[in-house]
Amino acid sequence: MRVLFVGGGSPATIFGIVPLASAVRNAGHEVFMAGNEAMVPYITGAGLPALSVADHEIKHYMAREWDDRFDTENHQDMMGFIGSWFARLGADGFASLRKVVETWRPDLLVGGTMSYAAALLSAELKVPYVVQAWGLDEWTGTDAAAERVLAPELRELGLDRLPEPDLRIGICPPSIASPDSRDDLLMRWMPGNLQGRLEPWMYSRAERPRVCLTAGSRADHERGFKFLKTLSERIAPLDVDIVIPAPEELAAELRAAIPGVRTGWIPLNVVMPTCDLVVHHAGGATTMTALTSCVPQLVIPETPVFMPPVQRLADFGAGLAIPEAEATDSAVAEACRAILSDGDFTVRARALAAEIAELPSPAALLPRLERLADASLVPADA
């Protein structure tokens, strides 16, 4: 069968669906993955054939949809903003993919959360459509905003709303899942991030407790430098080994500002098991990597809308969550000290890792995907 995977425009949205795409491809099926032009190196770096379906980066779509009247503290406003710019990306992706399918028609579409191009193409081709979650995040309200932006495309397809997927695949361990979860099937999360050259310290335990600081794979000077530099200053008095996985351009700035710091594009799944704590911004891939590595977390969400899922993690006892407005020097230092000195946080993190390990692997989901695709299979030259 032919399966088209559709990412969402940032590295984390690619990494999240790489394991399932790789499992499908390794089973002998034909797989393409689509993303905007900036994501092509991440897709090919994961060993998958890449389709560039939009020329613009995320900032372009975000700038188009941002309204100064938005209240970043207001959940409805932020979900509407997020859904709107994802919809703009989806509209561009849909336009490009329409040309692709003239010669390469998929039998199944798999999109990450809010990969709206997959939903639109599914409606046009009348082929099954699967949504796979990227992280623990809850995106209630995004679809309604996306439908307003995508109204012209939906009208052309004879629809007044986005089509429902034939299957929803979730990755959140049951103990911290939202009570409103709509997942039909749970899958074991596995790392799909871009790899690199390893050095012994990356996979070896340090003599002191090791703390990982990260602002995600999309971090840059604007949205990562101050956050990471400030964090390192706040926890330096704790006498810990600090490591900062970051894109190389940002890492160069951090090395200049923090002499001797270990930073760069360090594979998160390699270094995480050597850590005693990870402090981060509520990124989905970071959260899941820590969970599978049995590492407790201190999460400082960028905006309040990302607080609910990490608060459930904290309520379970696998870490702590502090709203950004309350993340003072003393609050962050005290939270780190509490986690590093109390082994119960690690015990609870291990319990969640055990839950994840019991879920079906991406390869185990293949029969379900194959059955979905059966109804739309056509000769390859049709």
TrEMBL record:
Record domain Erythromycin biosynthesis protein CIII-like N-terminal: where: 23-216
Protein name, UniProt field: Uncharacterized protein
InterPro entries: EryCIII-like_C, EryCIII-like_N, Glycosyltransferase_28, UDP_glucos_trans
PANTHER family recorded: STEROL 3-BETA-GLUCOSYLTRANSFERASE, STEROL 3-BETA-GLUCOSYLTRANSFERASE UGT80A2
Family: Belongs to the glycosyltransferase 28 family.
Residue ranges annotated for the Erythromycin biosynthesis protein CIII-like C-terminal domain, each copy included: 233-372
Keywords for the protein's UniProt record, in alphabetical order: Glycosyltransferase, Transferase
Source superkingdom: Bacteria
Pfam families: EryCIII-like_C (PF06722), EryCIII-like_N (PF21036)
Molecular function GO labels: hexosyltransferase activity; UDP-glycosyltransferase activity
Iron in keyword set: no
Keyword Calcium listed: no
